[in-house]
Fold each of these.
Amino acid sequence: PLNTELIPDKTGPSNPWRICTITQVEEVKCILRLLPIWMCTILSSVVFIQMLSLFIEQGAAMNTAIGAFHFPPASMTAFDIISTSFFIIFYDKLIVPLYVKITKRKPKPPSELQRIGIGLSIAVVAMIMAAFVEKQRRRYAILSGQDISPMSIFWQTPQYVLVGISEAFVYVAQWEFFSSQTPDGLKSLGLGLSMSSSAMGSYLCSIILSVVMHITSKNGKPGWVPPNLNDGNLDYFFFLSAALTTLNLGFYIFCAKRYKCIELEKRATDKEMEVLP
């Protein structure tokens, strides 16, 4: 349908809002082709938002004492930052050579789409890990008869590290992918798509949580995520997030397999050849 915009209407005066150049039409096509991949990255941001909210709430209901010092639950995000930083630094020197050795393929690192898929898979594992930690936290809290579980907050470390590795895969690859698949005139829009997925993930996380609480808090029930986590089932919400992320991963694989990466320089050369008389 976009190609019809290239055909001038000779039945009346020309309309600048309907007649577009080949470049403009192709740029719109580039953006439309990216939207399915962009939609899949939104749910990965939901996991990141939960780390900044529900993980901290979970940690606040755990034993934060290290001797006489109390470790702030929000400080656990340091493990996410450290794991993300280390993974990005050592990716080319350690991860890629190991990947080539295991797969026994020619020395070619995973593509951007493959890295996003790996990151989404790790996000699923992170949510499952968080769910199992929550089950044990709640169990020990109920056995002790206290609101604060005697279980150490550092049992959260694996889930924070996994989310950090997932971020390193998804966000870096996503930025590189959108940047490489948009023309020079739309590079900022490609970066905007990458950043907007985080914003959309925040809204989506709020919507999912609101819907879940509306459904699970009927008939006077406390719901899955009440103020006192011992009265709820935060682990169910984490399992639900893992299930949604798994479905999202399946849809992503479907879209990624059908996406054909564009070599922009080659495409631009072909267009120049087309306009030559």
Amino acid sequence: MTASGGRNPTTVVKVLGEVCDDPAAGVAEDDRLLTRTAQDGVPRLRLWYNPHCIVLGRGYARRLPRPVSHVGGLPVLVRSSGGEIVLHGPGVLNISLAVPAVLWNGSIEEMFRAFSAGVADALRAHGYAVGVGMVPGSYCPGDYDVAIAGRKVMGISQRRTREALMVHGSLNLHVIPEIYAYVLDRFYAAAGIENTADPALIGSVFAERPDRARVLPLEQAVAERLFSAWSRLTGTSWVEG
């Protein structure tokens, strides 16, 4: 929802925080987020945590040599956006932003750039050496990955409809790279994919700065920096409401 206020219109954004009990419901809620934004024209930012699971991009899931429903005790779920594979869990902050097309309907690259810039700025503001760009050899590599000291901490993907756009990412806060890589390798083997994950390229935000783990209000910082990035992109002032 946008309200005129002189030269700087205001965009009111709904911010939702959630800790999910059901991993499938957690993933599916992003589609409902997009649908609601398409219906009422209100941008929504969802900051949420999911139980342990493996999540695949829809196109990637269709191309697998063999379908996989579980790896060990972890369910394998499919999201409606693109990209390859990511792990969810209590130590991973999922960030989902839905924007109505009537407010902004720019390019795929612009949307990726603004989203990754907002998250990267939130981390830089708290002393992290952050880069944005592909991390060669990492899991699910993309041009707008967020990395700390060369180790990937977040990948992003998006989905677009005629009425609304959604971009989301999974930010590794507390993960153990060796375990993350082990789960990925088990999935690759089960799916018949000749690939291995390199734990040296998998990052964890608080592993880089353990002193920040108990004091960094990261959800708030991410919301503020995303609001700043999207205020610049849309030419409106984003505020929570």
Amino acid sequence: MVETIDYDFSQIEEGHMADHQGVWAIRAYNFDNIIEAFLENNSRAVVVNIGAGLDTTFQRVDQGTVLWINIDLPDVVAMRQKLIRHQLIPDSEREMTIAKSVFDFTWIDDISRWTKDRSILFMAAGVLMYFEAQEVEILFRKLAETYPSSHVIFDSMSWLPAWGSNREIKKIVKNSGMDSSTIIKWHLKRASGLRKWVDTIKIIEEYPMLSKVPARNDFNKKQIWQIKIVGLFRFYNMIHVQL
């Protein structure tokens, strides 16, 4: 799929961003595990993938009954349809893709026929950190108001790694043509910080992103050190809450 995209990926094949590629795979591993556990207890569930991009989580976790909804901007959905739907993955009658901003809350009406009498899980993988705090607040308040008792899973960075990542991102932005929307704007160290927006939030699970990586004999000293540091200082976390 990468070979079909007219873009120079050399900017992210080395240095700090190269290190991130392994973390992205670990993030997918964590999301898959949480979603699979949720589906075991909620066979009649709907998963709403906020900022789906080119994500293929549905194809990895589909247990045969889940309804899956992807939401992303129109230009991203067009690229998704071109690169994924028509080339790699067959259509599913249990998967819907909506070409809208997640802040265009008309999508709530669009999915109403799918969400009735079903448990709902919202996922946002590598998404929320790129919004302003005020935008994330609006989203959480709206989800809590519209879907009380629904679940939300997402990843979050604390301030220091967000600052470090932005230093590297700005270098890439300058040379690659990306825009400022790729800069990390919102950081969160503890899930309890969400209670200033929705005081009824229940924290189901919260752990350092790398803490559940299966042990491997081929990890080098740098990788082992990174796993320990990220966990000790809670730089990058997986968070699962119920609204």
